[in-house]
Every structure is written in structure tokens, then in C-alpha cells.
Design goal:
FAD/NAD(P)-binding domain; globular; Enolase-like, domain 1; 459 residues; alpha/beta; single chain
């Protein structure tokens, strides 16, 4: 049988990163993919969902201009053309960033379903290959909660919502995490009446309460109906749509989008015969080197139960491949940012204020700036949002939370501050260009020692 230094199972971000890392080190590499090249992010996740979001933002800006003297227009939305543009973008990125880069690196991709015969032998549609080392990077997929009648109601997950067969007139969204809120706003701005149902007491329950509640208010002001503390007891198909029975009443919609969780793609891999253990949720167990319970098998990305961000998957793929080839690297997740791409967006790095207050007590200092006090926001006519730095009484930075249009574009300063243990003085001594959103980072920190309303321009 043919032998490889490294066999990578899956061609998403983690798998391709692992293959490129190993190839760059001179290893003989094979990538195996049973589905569509590129994995979730480019095909059914980040790229198509953000395309719909930004399409909705363009329509919303036209209908709600923020500059005096610029009239509102009600742009017609050509749904077929919009979806065709999305599909063209996906195809281009799949080719350029996955197929082409693997070809340039000399890494072959074999289409087929892989399963372990043992920890060093993999069968691909029955044909066995020898793997000195393996990286499992098969990703994860949406999981439906155990609600009676839900599966029979043919709900959408994000995979169907970003490739819709129709644009529904009404949409119910189950789950107010990042995926649920992003797609809810995208559809609402593209003409669908949307109701969001969240079992937790508020939206984005893992994020800072100040910012999450403000974001909820902004979305409701746009016309989204958001119901928190809403528990669905059962679901049924009804008159070509769906009916959700809550404890207190009933919600009806043409379509239901379920955005409440994911599960690992491990079925059919025959992990037991390879001696690879999974946790109670079905994700592959790994250590900080991304090695599994078998030293010759590694796992990376969503299948390993890591934070489910494409940039984590890519780093994990590189670390797993390097360690499979004999290195001793660890996966360092300090300063890991997270972004909810609504408008305004919510970006954060580090713990929430509530979590830090529990650990630091009165040693915690909070620096805040409302976007009303940011010149760029006044100029743009969009003052929705809040900057919040969390520092200790020795001025060391522990977290940054930003609610602002395109907040993800300014979170990187907080990422570096948290990762490298920077202090307030390190950031205040750095330049922040005037009339940019980044200026808000400095102004928020200055609020620790002065009233920002007493500062002159750029002071």
C-alpha cells in the first residue's frame, strides 16, 4: 500500500493548514475529503453568512441614511442575483484559497470516505494507505436540540440559511448566539420579519452584559422581535410553515432556523479501532499539543472541541502537523478574540466584567466610552455602541469589549494587550489616528484619569 508521512482527514481550514505546514517541512502529505473542498467556513459558514450580512447592511444604509441632505431610497432586492453573487464568491475563494494553494504546495487531495483500520492504516473507500501520522480535521456540523417534533418540521440550520431555496416572509430563529443574531439581522434587513427565541435571560449570554443588552436594543429598534427566557416545548409543521409551542404562547413562521449548537464529524471514522478517544460530547480528546490518546494521531479544529473560530482551526492545524512531524509546540490561545458580525458588531477579548469582578473584586477598574463621545461616530452619524476596557489597579489590561459598527476591525489592539500583558501607559503612549474608530480605544482609557468631555481634539 502507498505510504505517507502525514494523512490529513478533512480539507477545511484546519486540514489545509496542517497539510501546508507538513508539506513546507518536506513531508509526503495526503488530504482526504469526502465532501466539498474547503470545509464549513468558505462553503456554509463565515463567507456566505457575512455576504448576506453585508448585503443587508448595504440595503439598510440606503433606506436609512445617516448624513443630512442624503435622501433615503428603498432599493429593490434581486434575490436571485444576490445569491448568484454569493455563490460566485464562494467558488472563487474555494479555488484560490484551497484547491490552488494545495496544488502549488504539491499536496494531492483524494476524494472519498476515510476510516481507520488501525492507528496507522486508513481505508479510503476501501483502498488502504499507510499513515505514519494522521491529523483528524473533519470539523463539526449543526446539532438539533431534543425538542419534540423539531426534526419533523424540517428546520433550517445555518447551512440551509446561507443557501436558501426561498426568502421566507417570516422567520423564527431559535438561539441568540452569534450565528442566530447574525442571520436574524441579515434576513430582517433583506425583507423578512424575524422573531428570535432565546432560552437564556439575554442574548449573547457568554458576552459582557452591558454590550449584549445594548445590542439587543439596537436590533429591536430595527424591527426584530427578540424574546429571551423563551423555552420551546414542542414544534410542529403547520400550513406550509412551522408552529413553535412555548410555555406561554405559540409562535408561527414560514421557516425555522435552529442555531443552538454543533457536534463533531466523527461518524464512520472508526476511531475505536484506532484507539482514539472522544469526550462525552463526541469531540476528539486532545492535549495541549493536539495529540490524541494515540501518539501517532492528532486532531485539530472544531472536531477537537476547540473554540470554533476559523483562525483557531488554522493555528491548530499548523500546531498539530508540526507536532506530528516531531516538534513540541503547544496551542496558545491567550488573547483569543471573538466577533459577532451584527451591525453594530460586538467584538471582545478576555473575560467579561462580571467574571473579572468575581476574581479581582475591588482591584478591577473599568474604562468606558460611549460612541457619542467619539468624533468619528458623530461624523458618520452612527453613535450606537460602547468601548469598555477592563484593567486592574496596577493598570494591566485584562479585557477589551467593543460594540460598534465593524468592531472586529479595532479589536486587535486589545488582543495584543491581553496576550502580552500590556499596561494602560503602553497603549496611551501609542498613536491613535484622529477620526478613526480606533481613537475610541485611547479615549476610553483616558476616561480612567480624566473627563473626556474636557479634552480638546486629539488631546
Amino acid at each position: 500500500m502507498e505510504a505517507y508521512d502525514l494523512v490529513v482527514l478533512g480539507s477545511g481550514s484546519a486540514g489545509v493548514a496542517a497539510a501546508l505546514e507538513a508539506s513546507a517541512q518536506g513531508a509526503k502529505v495526503l488530504v482526504v475529503e469526502r465532501g466539498t473542498l474547503g470545509g464549513t467556513c468558505v462553503n456554509g459558514g463565515c463567507v456566505p453568512s457575512k455576504y448576506l450580512l453585508w448585503a443587508g447592511e448595504a440595503a439598510h444604509r440606503s433606506a436609512h441614511p445617516t448624513v443630512p441632505g442624503v435622501g433615503a431610497t428603498d432599493p429593490p432586492i434581486d434575490w436571485a442575483a444576490l445569491l448568484a453573487g454569493k455563490d460566485r464568491l464562494i467558488e472563487a475563494l474555494r479555488t484560490e484559497k484551497y484547491a490552488d494553494v494545495l496544488a502549488l504546495a504539491g499536496v494531492p487531495v483524494r476524494r472519498g470516505t476515510a476510516r481507520f483500520v488501525d492507528s496507522r492504516t486508513i481505508a479510503i473507500d476501501g483502498e488502504e494507505v499507510r499513515a505514519v501520522r494522521t491529523v483528524i480535521a473533519t470539523g463539526a456540523r449543526p446539532a438539533l436540540p431534543p425538542i419534540p417534533g423539531l426534526a419533523d418540521a424540517r428546520p433550517w440550520t445555518y447551512l440551509e440559511a446561507v443557501h436558501p431555496d426561498v426568502r421566507p416572509r417570516t422567520l423564527a430563529v431559535l438561539g441568540a448566539g452569534p450565528v442566530g443574531l447574525e442571520l436574524a439581522q441579515a434576513y430582517a434587513r433583506l425583507g423578512t420579519r424575524v422573531t428570535v427565541l432565546e432560552a437564556a435571560p439575554r442574548v449573547l449570554p457568554q458576552e459582557d452584559e452591558d454590550l449584549a443588552l445594548r445590542l439587543q436594543g439596537y436590533l429591536e429598534a430595527e424591527g426584530l422581535v427578540i424574546r429571551t427566557g423563551a423555552r420551546v416545548e414542542r414544534v410542529e409543521a403547520h400550513d406550509g410553515g412551522v408552529r413553535l409551542h412555548l410555555i406561554e404562547d405559540v409562535v408561527e413562521a414560514e421557516r425555522l432556523l435552529v442555531a443552538t449548537g454543533r457536534r463533531a464529524n466523527v461518524e464512520g471514522l472508526n476511531l475505536a479501532d484506532a484507539g482514539v478517544e472522544t469526550d462525552t460530547r463526541g469531540f476528539v480528546r486532545v492535549d495541549d499539543r493536539l495529540a490524541t490518546s494515540r501518539p501517532e494521531v492528532f486532531a485539530a479544529g472544531d472536531v477537537a472541541g476547540l473554540p470554533q473560530y476559523v483562525y483557531v482551526a488554522a493555528l491548530a492545524g499548523r500546531v498539530a502537523a508540526a507536532n506530528a512531524l516531531g516538534h513540541q509546540r503547544t496551542l496558545d490561545l491567550r488573547g483569543l478574540p471573538r466577533v459577532t458580525f451584527t451591525d453594530p458588531a460586538l467584538a471582545a477579548v478576555g473575560p467579561t466584567e462580571a467574571d473579572l469582578r468575581a476574581s479581582l473584586g475591588n482591584r478591577l477598574r473599568v474604562a468606558r466610552l460611549d460612541l457619542h463621545d467619539l468624533p468619528q461616530a458623530r461624523l458618520a452619524g452612527d453613535e450606537r455602541g460602547l468601548f469598555k476596557w477592563l484593567v486592574d489597579n496596577e493598570d494591566r489590561v485584562h479585557a477589551l469589549h467593543v460594540l460598534a459598527p465593524h468592531a472586529g476591525d479595532v479589536i486587535q489592539e486589545g488582543v495584543l494587550a491581553v496576550r502580552f500583558g500590556l499596561r494602560v501607559s503602553d497603549l496611551l503612549d501609542a498613536f491613535h489616528p484622529y477620526l478613526t474608530r480606533a481613537e475610541g480605544l485611547r479615549l476610553a482609557l483616558q476616561s480612567l484619569v480624566t473627563d473626556v468631555h474636557r479634552l480638546s481634539c486629539c488631546a
